[in-house]
Amino acid sequence: MRFKKIIGKIVIYTIVTAGALFSLLPFLWMISTSFKTQREAIQIPPTWIPKVFTLDAYKMVWTKIAFPRYIYVSFIVATFTLIGVVLTALLAAYAFSWFKFKGRETIFMSLLALMMVPVPVYVIPLFILVQYLGWIDTYYALIIPWSVNIFAIFLLRQHMRGIPKDLYEAAVIDGCGRLCFLFRIILPLIKPAVVTISIFNIIGSWNAFMWPLMVVNSNNMRPIQVGLAYFSQGESTNYPALMAASFIAILPLVILFFLAQKQIVASYAKSGLKG
After folding, report:
1. Rounded to a whole number, what is the distance in angstroms from the first to the last CA of the chain?
2. Which CATH number fits domain 56-270: 1.10.3720.10, 3.30.470.20, 3.40.50.1980, 3.30.950.10?
3. pLDDT tens for each residue of 229-258
């Protein structure tokens, strides 16, 4: 019986490992191509390992186009959007989980219902509003509309509802107010959830394409995905440069995900304990 379990685990691990390696093949091909010459990138049969190792594609991406500017814009947008999402989610989740007021559950369910509305339904009215405010081609249009995230509110509320109410009474005895209790007691206890929403928000801001394409006109205000799209149109046959630009674009997200992987798993494991 034990031998059958061992064989079963070996088979499962083999299948999972094979699937992981298969999913990594496009990324490995992208990295390999970024270090090739243009001639080697289009040769048949293709080669996995570059015969001539060169950094020309990276030099071109970094010097001949405004790629550093695209990265800077995406960094600014991701940072300030993250600050807005974390603050609004913390305060809203705190209110929905710890305060009792009339219509609390109705308001919360209404917010959850808004999550089912697809983006194309409200993106045109949002664009008209941004245009009316004069925010076209500014950071305001890229940051403010996305500074509230309903999923973040839901996730933090689920974590906060699992915290014992006795903690608040003990904190009040020690002279702790409501905001002090939120930031000094609750926030450390829900750290995995905060890290999770932070990671997903950064990924969403970094990969945003449709909305920035609508509200950005000048080259200096393009985030990295929009800049990458324009670059791919101009250099559609320069495959090493395209692969180098794509690799630079996804590298920060890959590093960020691996650094926060444990917190993400811990957050999803605890989000359904109570509520």
Report:
1. 41
2. 1.10.3720.10
3. 888 777 667 778 888 888 888 888 888 777
